Amino acid sequence: MEHFDRTALRELAFALLTQGGLEPDKAETVSELLTQTDEIGVTTHGISMLSYYLPELANGRMTCSGSHDVLCDSKIAQVLDGNYLPGHWVMQQAIESCMARASEAGMAAMAIRRSHHIGCLSTLTRIAALKGFVCYIATSDPSGRWVAPFGGVEPLLTPNPWAIGYPSSTHPVLIDTCASITTVSKVREHINSGTEFEHAWMLGSDGSATTDPNVVNAKPKGSILPVGGMDHGHKGFAMGLMVEMLTQALAGHGRVEAPDRWGANVFLQVLDPEAFGGRDAFLAQVDHVNDACRTSRPIPGRDPVRIPGDRAARRREEASAAGIALPNEVLERIRSCAADAHLPFPDSLPDTKS
Asked: Which band of pLDDT confidence, cut at 50, 70 and 90, is reported for residue 351?
């Protein structure tokens, strides 16, 4: 791991995106949220994504300019067409809209079709949680086929992640998971680094569970197992169907239209605790459960129980003190992007532990 100044990384991301043709206001949002993602330690979805976004900009499959379209607006519920604009920018607009409406009505929801990839969901739910809201996000890609339905071998669904962020008296609780047992980004990371998974999280086209990530590139193609794996994968499969419904059926656009470009359909919901039992009561309940979990007796030889969001908060503190840590696999790809764009790569920070 090498450590880097967050401003230097953000400025590099901004330069790469604008040189790639993205409008400056959108590049500013994307570069900032990618940097925030690396700050919380989710390096699979931070600036490493630039190596995938830049080719999308170059071939016109990520829209460089313009705005989303509002297709339906009933005040509490909206439907947007993201027009394949960068997902971080689309989601920033969507979350701000839903927070404003939730402040008035207690809740607001939005279905989004045809956004581009929206990045790390915890980074997005954290935006609303820091302002006192509960924020739920689910996303799918109608063009993607990575996960087989439970009992089948043909990949038909995407990992279909979902996340919920909500405030506590310390830092936001950030629950971020998906209907598959691992993510596409993790599969790519293992393929790029030439390593296999520690557990049999993949499914070969013959129906056998395997640790080999390369089955997704085989012919016939293998897949990622749903949550629960070979034993209880019906639970992950059901979760995946729920996400498909929320993100595609409610948006009125999805696999029926058979899109052929990388994108994201999204369901977003924002709730204001004040409109329910009140903010103080909300925090009292959340803090009580969090404290009870953290102080519960751990399994012998294991670390204390951690609440989702604890590690993100700790990583942010570490990044503030020592810089953002990036693994070699990420650095190789982003250094290559910078070299191709004839941009200097920032120097790593000195090791404060030595």
From this structure: confident
Characterize 197-217 residue by residue with b for buried, 16 or more Cβ atoms within 10 angstroms of its Cβ, and e for exposed: beebbbbbbeeeebebbebbe
Q: Exposed, middle or buried by CB within 10 Å (0-12, 13-18, 19+), for 22? A: buried
pLDDT band of residue 353 (cuts 50, 70, 90) is low
What is the arithmetic mean of pLDDT over 277-300? 98
Q: How far apart are alpha carbons 1 and 13 in whole angstroms?
A: 19
Taking only the tens place, the pLDDT of each residue in 222-255 is 999 999 999 999 999 999 999 999 999 999 999 9
User: Residue 303, exposed/middle/buried by CB under 10 A (0-12, 13-18, 19+)?
Assistant: exposed
Q: How far apart are CA 28 and CA 50, in angstroms?
A: 13
Q: How far apart are CA 211 and CA 232, in angstroms?
A: 18
First to last CA, the chain: 14
Q: What is the pLDDT of residue 352?
A: 66
What the block records as the tokens of 5 is 């100044």
The token pair that represents 353 in the structure block: 């532990």
**Is a pLDDT exceeding 90 seen at residue 189?**
no
* Radius of gyration in angstroms for the set of CA atoms belonging to the chain, rounded to a whole number: 20
**Cα separation of 148 and 221, whole Å?**
10
For residue 121, the one-letter residue type is L
Q: Distance from CA of residue 29 to its chain's centroid?
A: 15
Task: Please write the tens of the pLDDT for every residue from 314-332.
Answer: 999 999 999 999 999 899 9
The pair of three-digit structure tokens given for residue 318, joined into one six-digit string: 């570490």
Q: Strand, helix or coil at 81?
A: strand
Query: Partners of 4 in the beta sheet?
Result: 324
